[in-house]
Design a protein that fits this description.
386 residues; 7-stranded parallel sheet
Amino acid sequence: MRKIGVVTTSRADYSIYRPVLLALRRRRVAFELYVTGTHLHKAFGESIRAIEQDGFPIAARIRVVPGASPRDISRTMGRVTTAFADVLEAHKPDILVVLGDRFEMHAMAVAAIPFGIPLAHIHGGELTHGAIDDMFRHSLTKLSALHFASTAEYARRIRQMGEEASRVIVSGAPGLVFSGQRARLTKEDIIRQFHIDFDKDVFLITFHPVTQEYVHTGIYIRNLLDALAGFNNAFFVFTGTNADTSYDVIEAGIRGFIKKRKDAVLVRNFGPEAYAGMLDHARIMVGNSSSGIIEAASHALPVVNIGTRQAGRVRAVNVIDAGYGTEDIRRAISRGLSAGFRQRIKGVSNPYFRPDAAEIVADTLCAVDLPSIRSKEFKDIYGRSK
């Protein structure tokens, strides 16, 4: 029986994996998780507890210390690669599933290459111009033998990178399947657990470092907080930031904002059921998270997407793009709060949704002929030069 290894680095990728893992469990195939990154840190919500509660098999925990400088990130990548080499030697998965664009994910994928373990990549072909994630994501595409693209446009981009068409599968975004089916917390449950005031307009706010522009992080977060301060009938719910370069600057700004107010809280890790409930009941989402691009449309939630971090991604009509300036952000939020905009996005179609996405990924992982994908050739769409 084949053994499927799954690399997970944070609550974000785990929420996407979860429907696939449930589908694998139903098929009674052997799989195991290799856990690293912010999963293992209390300061980032210690999201490994969600994996433990779900009962999925954790084969290895690779603990690293999050850092906020480029040097820290590079050193972390080296430590993760070294540690994962030992994990692979001990556990020997037949295929390794990786997702997205995190530097920890890339470090673990690099460790697998000398072992001849084929990689299956979820969410390749996407663009995020403002983040170094683009480079990691496209590199993971070239390291991988099998590709699950969330839209047809992204699948075309993967093929454009020289990948064989038969190995590129338009699966949709698997995380949306469970988002639509999970038992979401009710508004009353959320109030009881997180003390959120739904008598006001609830803003769900996630702002991550823009890693291509990290020297401007202080200005970006200050402008965002200044824009938020202009809304009086609001309750601000901040979620935790990624452990990327200058994340500490964002966290310091948020802590300072919350300290001065009674209408703001920080929830580092809602958990999947509570987060789905927040997407249902929040008035607006503000920030630069991929959740605003990929998930929020399924909840008809207005999103103000700030700056360049998500530039290049396919988005639905519920997303309002804004620059980094305080007034630009404020105008976009006002538009998103307006009755006319909310009416216009009712029934919005989510371009990332396919009801069978998790089943497509699970079926392929179980059925793919592994020897046939251990090597690959570059498919030149322009033809070879003579």
